Amino acid sequence: MTTIAGASANFTRDLDQNYALISALADEARSIGVDFLALPEAAIGGYLSSLGDHGDTVKNTTRSLPPAISLDGPELKKVQAIVGDLVVAIGFCELAEDGETRYNAAALLDGGQIYGSYRKVHQPLGENMSYSAGSTYPVSDTPVGRIGLQICYDKAFPEAARIMALDGAEIIASLSAWPAARTQTAENLQDDRWTYRFNQFDIARALDNQVFWVAANQSGTFGSLRYVGNAKVVDPGGNILATTLLGSGIASAEVDIEGTFRQMRAGMFHLRDRRPDVYGPVGAPDDAETAKWRGLVHARS
């Protein structure tokens, strides 16, 4: 059996606060036997303080941007020292090898090794003004199993999870700084339409691909953003096994990865029964041929 967990917590620009919070979450995770813990997007240095036309950008300010760190820098080494033998996914702002380019990134690590890293591919609401986009979805072997990473808005794109499932991912960790709606926000954030979407995406992506899905999210507030928490563990049948709802904390579940896969994939063959021969336009660039295909679809409808 393996215990997997996602955290909901509030991370800021204060790195000392971040390390203390990571330490507290790691201690709590160890106390309940967690083997793999997903921490939120931007758990080192916090996320952007706003999104949209007035969001933080490299062009108009550097004061409110998260610190940019390298994969081999002291910040991740500090995290490794904190987590020890606990396998952790953690989000941060990555500084590329050129010393200038920034990525919204995540790393998969424990105290002895960085197993893999990921640079966010899909960028919402002007995030491209602060970060460059990644272009791959790697899957990494770890002591817990084969794990894929994605960040926040990625979960709205079925292709992002599917490509990792096809690469053998058993667990997909979705790290977020997912806020409530910017307009007509619900009084109770659990009823907010963006909370609903966050939760539905988690369920759908787990069920689509028959994988274990671990969602981590920021909680509380930062700048103009109000986060919706709802860290959770979802099984390959789309069942929520544990959730924090709006609160901070850890959602954990003890699972039998091999046994669950054998059971869930014995009757429904979502990966086996695909028809890639008819999906061509889904992966096609936005060229004339794709436009022609879209025109035919619209004409038929």
Give the SSE layout.
Layout: E1 2-9, H1 15-31, E2 36-38, E3 68-69, H2 74-83, E4 87-95, E5 102-109, E6 114-119, E7 139-142, E8 145-151, H3 158-166, E9 171-176, H4 193-209, E10 212-218, E11 221-222, E12 225-226, E13 232-234, E14 240-243, E15 249-255, H5 257-264, H6 280-283, H7 288-300
Parallel strand pairs: 1-2, 1-10, 2-4, 3-4, 8-9, 9-10
Antiparallel strand pairs: 1-15, 4-5, 5-6, 7-8, 10-13, 11-12, 13-14
Written account of the structure:
It contains seven helices and 15 strands. α1 (about 15-30) packs parallel to α2. By secondary structure, the protein is an alpha/beta fold. The mean pLDDT is about 90. The protein has helices at about 15-30, 75-85, 160-165, 195-210, 255-265, 280-285, 290-300; strands spanning about 1-10, 35-40, 70, 85-95, 100-110, 115-120, 140, 145-150, 170-175, 210-220, 220, 225, 230-235, 240-245, 250-255. About 45% of the residues are buried. β8, α3 and β9 form a beta-alpha-beta unit. Strands 1, 2, 3, 4, 5, 6, 7, 8, 9, 10, 13, 14 and 15 form a 13-stranded mixed sheet that branches. Strands 11-12 form a two-stranded antiparallel ribbon. The longest helix is centred in the first third of the chain and has 17 residues, at about 15-30. It has a single domain, classed as Carbon-nitrogen hydrolase (Nitrilase/N-carbamoyl-D-aminoacid amidohydrolase, 4-Layer Sandwich).
